[in-house]
């Protein structure tokens, strides 16, 4: 049985990856320091024999006893609110954390896949964004701590590949959504659905003309799984090219939730990208990967998940914003 280490295992994407690798018959070692992750996301796995968990911060030396075949580095704060609250941790997990895990991968002769991001393109001047675009990032802006950590992460991963011959994979993840997102993480989908469920107005930042492209988590996980098993070492975009404005997105959430609340406008955060849409030609050609879940379908599943949360969780989530 192959053994895989997944960092950020208690987070949104990490927990879905744990589920997928368990389903595929792997031994899964989850690791998380729970700074933004939540054990609730993986509590169903603790009873399984092929799942173990370490509460550890990967910015510090990482020790895992036994063999490892794969390492998937998904530990990182991942929302603009988090970057503002915990900027140093955001920088460290992407840089020092990646370095530690590359060292571990080298020692174990494991294949290492890193979670990079559409944020490496910054506020893009090329649209849609192919992997060959180098990006437009403000290194000293509020998002710089995330963007530059991820750019460094790509650079050091590629250096380990070329210099040490390590088997490495780089996925550039575009906006992804689904069950287990944190209701209070500040990102647009949990923000809008949380507001609708609490009977509050929906907050659009700026005039709502900025665009994003939202990918359902199962489609993303499928792309990552295929990339890991491929022999491709250059970055690969995974995301859904179906692009909408944030105003249209608010309308879809209003329709889905049936809320009577209105939309209110707040200041656009500094360096908020104006548009974002992945060019997924490479993923299609190399991984033979196709999207399966429409936004309508994915949003319904996600809304049902948020509706199943307790009132306490719904209101607890409010305070983080204020
Ligand atoms: N946004 C918004 N209202 C909110 C939260 C976010 O209008 O309550 C906007 C945000 O300014 C951005 C877009 O929605 O333009 C997506 O934001 P998110 O934080 O989800 O992630 P990003 O793609 O910016 O990293």
Folded structure, characterized:
- This protein is an alpha/beta fold and 322 residues long.
- It folds into two domains: 3-176 and 215-238, 3-Layer(aba) Sandwich (Rossmann fold); 184-212 and 242-276 and 294-319, UDP-galactose 4-epimerase, domain 1 (Alpha-Beta Complex).
- 38% of the residues lie in helices and 17% in strands.
- It has eleven helices and 13 strands.
- A seven-stranded parallel sheet has the order 3-2-1-4-5-6-11, sandwiched between helices. A two-stranded parallel sheet has the order 7-10.
- Helix 3 (87-94) packs parallel to helix 5 (144-164) and helix 6 (188-198) runs parallel beside helix 8.
- The radius of gyration is 19 Å and the shape is globular.
- The model has no long low-confidence stretch (mean pLDDT 96).
- The structure holds uridine-5'-diphosphate.
Count of runs of 4 or more consecutive helical residues: 11
User: How are helices and strands ordered from N to C?
Assistant: EHEEEHHHEHEEHEEEHEEHEHHH
Query: Which overall shape is indicated by the principal axes computed on the Cα atoms?
Result: globular
Percent of residues in beta strands: 15-25%
Residue-averaged pLDDT: 96
CATH class of the largest domain: Alpha Beta
Largest sheet geometry = 7 strands, parallel
Number of strands: 13
State the CATH architecture of the largest domain.
3-Layer(aba) Sandwich
What is the count of distinct domains? 2
User: Helical proportion?
Assistant: 25-40%
Q: Nearest-angstrom radius of gyration?
A: 19 Å
């Amino acid at each position: 049985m192959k053994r895989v280490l997944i960092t950020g295992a208690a987070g949104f994407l990490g927990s879905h990856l744990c589920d997928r690798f368990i389903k595929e018959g792997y031994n899964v070692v989850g690791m998380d320091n729970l700074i933004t992750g939540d054990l609730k996301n993986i509590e169903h796995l603790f009873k399984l024999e092929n799942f173990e968990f370490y509460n550890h911060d990967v910015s510090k030396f990482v020790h895992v006893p036994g063999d490892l075949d794969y390492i998937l580095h998904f530990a990182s704060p991942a929302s603009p609110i988090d970057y503002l609250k915990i900027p140093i941790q955001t920088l460290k997990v992407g840089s020092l954390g990646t370095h530690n895990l590359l060292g571990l991968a080298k020692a174990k002769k494991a294949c290492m896949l890193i979670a990079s991001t559409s944020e490496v393109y910054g506020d893009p001047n090329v649209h849609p964004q192919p992997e060959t675009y180098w990006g437009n990032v403000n290194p000293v802006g509020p998002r710089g701590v995330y963007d530059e950590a991820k750019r460094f992460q790509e650079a050091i991963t590629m250096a380990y590949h070329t210099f040490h011959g390590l088997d490495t994979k780089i996925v550039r993840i575009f906006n992804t959504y689904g069950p287990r997102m944190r209701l209070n993480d500040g990102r647009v989908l949990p923000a809008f659905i949380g507001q609708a469920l609490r009977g509050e107005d929906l907050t659009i930042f700026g005039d709502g003309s900025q665009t994003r492209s939202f990918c359902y988590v199962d489609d993303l996980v499928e792309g990552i799984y295929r990339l890991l098993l491929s022999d491709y070492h250059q970055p690969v975009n995974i995301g859904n090219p179906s692009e909408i404005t944030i105003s249209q997105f608010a309308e879809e959430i209003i329709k889905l939730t049936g809320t009577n609340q209105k939309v209110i406008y707040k200041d656009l955060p500094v360096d908020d990208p104006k548009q974002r849409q992945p060019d997924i030609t490479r993923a299609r050609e190399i991984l033979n990967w196709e999207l399966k879940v429409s936004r309508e379908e994915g949003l319904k599943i996600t809304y049902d998940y948020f509706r199943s949360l307790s009132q306490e969780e719904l209101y607890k989530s409010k305070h983080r914003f204020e």
